[in-house]
Design brief:
The structure holds two protein chains of two kinds. By secondary structure, chain A is mostly helical. Chain A has seven helices and six strands; from the N terminus they run H-H-H-E-E-E-E-E-E-H-H-H-H. In chain A, helix 1 packs antiparallel against helix 7, helix 2 packs antiparallel against helix 3 and helix 5 packs antiparallel against helix 6. The relative contact order of chain A is 0.15. The chains are: A mainly alpha, B alpha+beta.
Chain lengths: ~300, ~450
C-alpha cells in the first residue's frame, strides 16, 4: 500500500474557503448598498486618487456655475437699466429738438427745461441703481455713485471710482462684471450728464440748445455702444454655462466609470458567492460524521 | 529444537508487542484533535532467529519504539510562512484603520479643500457680502478641522500600535520561557534514549505561536534547540531563554531591546511585531508628515495671498490660518483659523470694499504648487493613492500567504494527522493479532497439560 495519504482534517481548508466567501459577500453587499465600488482607497488606489481629482473638478464646475447664475442676473439688470437710460436720453434729444424750434416762447422753453430736469433726475436715479446691495455703476466703492450737485457744471458729482471687478467662470477664464459710472455716463466728449445739464441751461437761456443736442446725440451713440458690453457678457456667460453643463455631465460620467458599482455584475457575483457558501456549508455538513469505528462489532 | 516454553515466550512477546501497538493507536485516537499532535506509529521488528544445527527458529516479534511521524523541514516552512502572515496581518489591520481617514467621506480633507475654494469663488461676484465671507471663514475652519481629525486619529492609532508592541514582547517572552523549559525536558529524555515526542509536539506548537509574533530562525544542535531572530538576537539557547524588553524612545514610543541591551527595533523583518513596527514607525508617520506638508503649504500660500489684498475696511490683509512652523512639522494636528471676523478676508485688491481683485489671488492657490511642487488636490490624491496602494498590496500578499500556509498545513496533515479510519483498521488488526497470540498461548498450555499428564493414570 503506497498511495498518498490524505489529510484527515480538511476542516481548516473548508473554513478558510467559507471565510473567503463571506468576505466576498460583505464586499458585494457594501458595493450594492453604497452604489460605489471604491469604498476605501485600497479597493482601487488609482481610482480613489482619480476620484479625488474628479470630485474637485466637479466642485469647481459647480462653483463656476453658481458664479455665472449670480453675475448673469447682474448683467441683465445692468443691461435693462442701460436701455432705460438710452431711451431717456432719446427723449431728451427730442425735447431738445423741440426746444430749438424758434417759434417757441420762453415760457414754452422753460416748460421743456422743466421736463428735461425731470429726465435728469430720472437718469441720476437710474445711474444709482443697486443690485443686491451693490451699486451697479459705482466702480468698486460702496458709495452711492451720483449726487445731484447744482454747483457742478454737469449737475452731478460722481462719488464712485474707476475700478472694475473680474469674476472667474472657468479655469483661467475671467470676465469683467461691471462698468464704472465714470466710464459710462461721464466719458470725455460723450458726457451724458454734462449734455443734459447743458440742455437745461440752454433752454433756460435760449442759447446753445443746438450744441447741447449734438452733445446729447454723441452721448446717445456712445451709450448704445457701451450697451454692447452687457450684451456680449450675457452671451459669453450663457455659452460658458452651456459648456460647464456638458463638462459636468462628462465629469459625472467619468466618476461613474471610475467608481460606480456594476450593479448587475455585483448582484450576480453576490448570488454566486451565496450559492458557493451554501455548497461549502453543505459539504462541511456532509463531511463524514462517522468513521470505521462506528462499524466495528461491539 | 524448539521447546514449548520457547514457543510460549514467542507468544507472550507477541502479546506485549500488540499491546504496545494498541497503545499507540489509543494515544492517536485520544489526541485526534490536539493541535500540533503528530501521530505515533509502532515500529515492530522481527527478533534475531535462533540457529540450531541446520535449523533456524524464529524468535518472535518485539516493539522497537513508537515513532512520531513528523517532517522537520515542512515544520520550518510552516513557521516561516506563519511569520510572514503574522507581519502582514498586523500591518494590514493597522493600515486599514489608517485608510478610513482617506475614504472620501463628506468630511475628508479632499472634500474640504474643494469646499473651501468653492466658497471662495462664490465671493467673487459679491465681495461685500458678509454672509458669503462668513461662508469662506466657515469652510476654512472645516478645512482646518479635517486636518486636525485625520492627524489626531493617526496619532492615536500609533499609540494603540505602541501598546500592541509591548503586548507582543510580553507574549514573546512568555513563549520563549516555555520553549526553554521544554528544551530541558527533551534533552533529559533524549539523554536516556527516551521518546520525547509529546514534548516535541508541544514545542513545535509553541514555536508556531512564536513565529506569528517575531521572525525566528531554528538551529538544531546536539545540545538542544537554539532560536534566534533573523538578525541573530538570541531568544532561546537550550534550556535558557533570553527576554526581550521595551524602552521608551525620544518620540515617546517603545523600542524593542535584546537581552544584551541592543536596540533591535529596526532589525525585525517578520512576525506580528515587525508589522506593528512598520505601521507605527514608517507608514503612519509618513502619512502624518504628508498631512503636515499639505496643511502647512496650504496655510502658508493662503496667508500670503490674503496679505496681498485688503479687507472690507480697507486695511491690509493678515493671516487666515495660524502661521505654521518653518518645517511644517505637527501642523496638521494644530491647524486653526487665525481670524473670526469675516470682514478680515482680504477680497479687495485696492482697498475699496467692492473690489474682488484679491479673490482671484486667493483662488489661484488651488492651482499653485503649494506642497511638494504639486497643487493641493494633486498632492492629496497622491496621498490617497499611496495609502490605498499600501493596503491593497499587503492584502494581496496576505491572501497569498494564507493560501500557502493552508497548503503547508494540509501537507503537514497528510504526514502527521490522525486518521480515525486508519486507527480503527489498525485497532482491528492489532486486536486480531493479540487474540491469535492469546489463542497460541492457550494451545501451548493445552500441549503442556498433555506433556504434564503423560504417564499419569487416573
Amino acid at each position: 500500500m503506497s498511495s498518498i495519504r490524505v489529510n484527515p482534517y480538511p476542516m481548516p481548508d473548508l473554513l478558510a474557503a467559507l471565510e473567503h466567501l463571506q468576505q466576498q459577500q460583505n464586499t458585494d453587499t457594501l458595493e450594492l448598498a453604497t452604489g460605489t465600488k471604491i469604498n476605501q482607497p485600497s479597493d482601487d488606489p488609482a481610482g480613489a486618487a482619480q476620484l479625488v481629482q474628479i470630485n474637485d473638478s466637479l466642485g469647481q464646475t459647480d462653483s463656476f456655475q453658481r458664479s455665472i447664475a449670480s453675475i448673469s442676473d447682474q448683467f441683465s439688470t445692468a443691461n435693462s437699466i442701460l436701455s432705460s437710460v438710452v431711451s431717456a436720453v432719446q427723449r431728451a434729444i427730442s425735447l431738445g429738438v423741440e426746444g430749438a424750434n424758434g417759434t417757441l416762447s420762453q415760457d414754452d422753453r422753460d416748460n421743456v427745461a422743466a421736463e428735461v430736469s425731470g429726465i435728469q433726475s430720472q437718469l441720476i436715479s437710474l445711474a444709482n441703481t443697486s443690485y443686491q446691495g451693490q451699486y451697479l455703476f459705482a466702480g468698486t466703492t460702496n458709495l452711492q455713485p451720483y449726487i445731484a450737485d447744482p454747483n457742478s457744471p454737469s449737475g452731478v458729482t460722481y462719488q464712485g471710482n474707476t475700478g472694475t471687478n473680474q469674476v472667474t467662470i472657468g479655469n483661467g477664464y475671467q470676465i469683467q462684471v461691471n462698468l464704472p459710472g465714470s466710464q459710462l455716463f461721464n466719458a470725455p466728449g460723450s458726457d451724458m450728464f454734462q449734455a443734459v445739464n447743458d440742455l437745461i441751461t440752454g433752454l433756460k437761456n435760449d442759447s446753445g440748445i443746438d450744441t447741447a443736442v449734438s452733445e446729447l446725440n454723441a452721448a446717445y451713440t456712445y451709450l448704445t455702444g457701451q450697451q454692447v458690453f452687457y450684451g456680449n457678457a450675457i452671451n459669453q456667460v450663457q455659452d460658458q454655462q452651456t459648456y460647464l453643463s456638458s463638462a459636468q455631465v462628462s465629469l459625472e460620467q467619468q466618476q461613474n466609470t471610475v467608481a460606480a458599482a456594476d450593479i448587475a455584475g455585483t448582484a450576480t457575483q453576490l448570488a454566486s458567492a451565496q450559492t458557493a457558501e451554501n455548497a461549502t456549508l453543505s459539504a462541511i455538513g456532509r463531511s463524514p460524521q462517522s468513521s470505521l469505528f462506528d462499524y466495528l462489532p461491539l | 529444537m524448539s521447546s514449548l516454553f520457547g514457543i510460549l515466550s514467542i507468544a507472550t512477546g507477541a502479546l506485549g508487542a500488540d499491546q504496545g501497538a494498541m497503545d499507540a493507536t489509543t494515544n492517536n485516537v485520544a489526541n485526534a484533535n490536539t493541535p500540533g499532535y503528530s501521530r505515533l506509529r509502532p515500529v515492530l521488528t522481527e527478533n534475531v532467529p535462533i540457529v540450531v544445527g541446520s535449523l533456524t527458529y524464529g524468535s518472535g516479534v518485539s516493539l522497537e519504539k513508537l515513532q512520531s511521524l513528523r517532517d522537520p523541514i515542512l515544520q520550518v516552512r510552516i513557521d516561516e510562512e506563519t511569520q510572514q502572515q503574522g507581519q502582514l496581518n498586523a500591518f494590514v489591520s493597522a493600515m486599514q484603520q489608517a485608510q478610513t481617514q482617506f475614504s472620501g467621506g463628506s468630511g475628508d480633507i479632499g472634500t474640504q479643500i474643494s469646499n473651501f475654494f468653492s466658497s471662495l469663488s462664490q465671493l467673487g461676484p459679491d465681495p461685500e457680502s458678509l454672509s458669503l465671507r462668513q461662508g469662506v471663514l466657515t469652510a476654512a475652519g472645516n478645512l482646518a478641522n479635517s486636518f486636525n481629525n485625520a492627524a489626531n486619529n493617526l496619532t492615536q492609532q500609533r499609540s494603540s500600535l505602541d501598546l500592541g508592541v509591548t503586548q507582543a514582547v510580553e507574549q514573546i517572552n512568555s513563549l520563549t520561557g516555555q520553549i526553554a523549559q521544554l528544551n530541558t525536558h527533551i534533552s533529559e529524555l533524549q539523554g536516556v534514549n527516551q521518546d520525547a515526542s509529546a514534548f516535541l509536539d508541544q514545542r513545535d506548537d509553541l514555536i508556531g505561536q512564536l513565529s506569528s509574533l517575531i521572525d525566528v530562525s531554528t538551529i538544531q544542535s546536539d545540545d538542544g534547540l537554539t532560536l534566534t531572530t533573523s538578525n541573530g538576537t538570541a531568544l532561546v539557547a537550550g534550556g535558557q531563554s533570553f527576554s526581550l524588553s521595551t524602552q521608551v524612545n525620544s518620540s515617546g514610543f517603545q523600542d524593542v531591546y535584546s537581552s544584551q541591551g541592543s536596540d533591535i527595533t529596526t532589525q525585525l523583518t517578520s512576525g506580528q511585531l515587525a508589522g506593528l513596527l512598520a505601521a507605527r514607525d514608517q507608514n503612519i508617520p509618513a502619512l502624518l508628515s504628508n498631512l503636515d506638508t499639505l496643511s502647512s503649504g496650504l496655510a502658508n500660500a493662503l496667508n500670503t495671498a490674503n496679505q496681498q489684498g485688503f479687507d472690507l475696511s480697507g486695511n491690509a490683509g493678515g493671516n487666515i490660518f495660524t502661521p505654521p512652523p518653518a518645517n511644517g512639522q505637527g501642523y496638521a494636528a494644530n491647524m486653526a483659523i487665525a481670524i473670526t471676523d469675516p470682514s478680515l478676508i482680504a477680497a479687495s485688491s485696492d482697498g475699496t470694499p467692492g473690489s474682488n481683485g484679491n479673490v482671484a489671488v486667493l483662488s489661484a492657490v488651488d492651482s499653485s504648487p503649494v506642497a511638494g511642487g504639486q497643487t493641493p488636490t494633486d498632492y492629496y490624491s497622491n496621498v490617497v493613492f499611496g495609502v490605498g496602494n499600501d493596503v491593497s498590496n499587503a492584502t494581496a500578499e496576505l491572501n497569498a500567504s494564507q493560501l500557502i500556509l493552508n497548503q503547508l498545513q494540509d501537507q503537514r496533515g497528510q504526514i502527521s494527522g490522525v486518521s480515525l479510519d486508519e486507527e480503527a483498521a489498525n485497532m482491528v488488526q492489532y486486536q486480531n493479532a493479540y487474540n491469535a497470540a492469546a489463542r497460541v498461548v492457550t494451545t501451548i498450555d493445552e500441549m503442556l497439560q498433555t506433556v504434564i499428564n503423560m504417564g499419569v493414570t487416573s
